[in-house]
Amino acid sequence: MNHLPSAVTLCEVGLRDGLQNEKTILPTEKKVELLRGLAGAGFRVIEVGSFMHPKAVPQMADTDEVYKAVGELPGVELRALIPNLRGVKRAAECGCKKVKLNVSASRQHNLKNLNMTPEESVAGFAGCVQAAGENGIAISGSISMPFASPWEGRIPLADVEAIIEAYLKVGITEISLSDASGMAVPNQVYQLCAHVGEKYPQVSWWLHFHNTRGLAMANIMAAMEAGMTQFDSSFGGLGGCPFVPGAAGNISTEDVLNMCDEMGIQTGVDILKVMELSRTLRELLGHDMDSYILRAGRARDLVLS
Ligand code: ZN
User: Fold this and answer.
1) 3-state DSSP call for residue 153?
2) Can 241 be counted among the known catalytic residues?
3) Could you tell me which of 239, 169, 187, 168 has the C-alpha nearest to residue 208?
4) CA of 208 to the centre of ligand 1 (A)
5) pLDDT (tens digit per residue) in 155-190
């Protein structure tokens, strides 16, 4: 096993990607408590929520309130997903300093829903970039399903490159590759990550894997071997995707932390504190979650006598 990084950065996305798929809507104060707990566990990047229309995603309707209640957490980047310019305005009003846009890499999906190619969607983000800049808000972009989509299967590399270049053209240089459909496989992840890492060295890359087919951890390993060091994960493995049949959550944070801890890869995050927060979350939501470590505990905690 070659080229593994000595340290990686994890962004905890459970409060957004996880909670948005739950029937139970957590009260704002519980979200704030969990958010403070996650910062206390050592996360330096946390996805707090989204500024989607409250009717479309009622679980995230109070994201503005969460920001106002939590205020500044020194040294922690709190980011939120936005759909459009309205999202930048809401971010500016509640003190959010980092937003993330998203586009689907599926041309068919995009043409059918928006009557635009993915590159045209991204070109339309120019106004968001400008407004974010005027308000001192950092902005990043996500490409959903860059590996494969349920509509066309494998996405051609040229299509992914066209979207990356559209992002660069509007001035976005932090890009997340998001396997929302859980269709990516490790050799493809390695190839795409190695390729884009070399071709676009100016980009700060994030990888976001769902564990729908049990391959998220293998995909993280493949991405690490290709030089990637920034990954999203979700405490308790919470999540899903409303558009993808049978979608599972993001890879569980404690599972990733366990692997990194045992392999000597620094994360700066305390796994025991995260496990405690995942147990709290399980109680709040009233159901089991998709986390090996929460079920089985850490291997190093076993007493075999
Ligand atoms: Zn996701």
Assistant:
1) strand
2) yes
3) 239
4) 7
5) 999 999 999 999 999 999 999 999 999 999 999 999
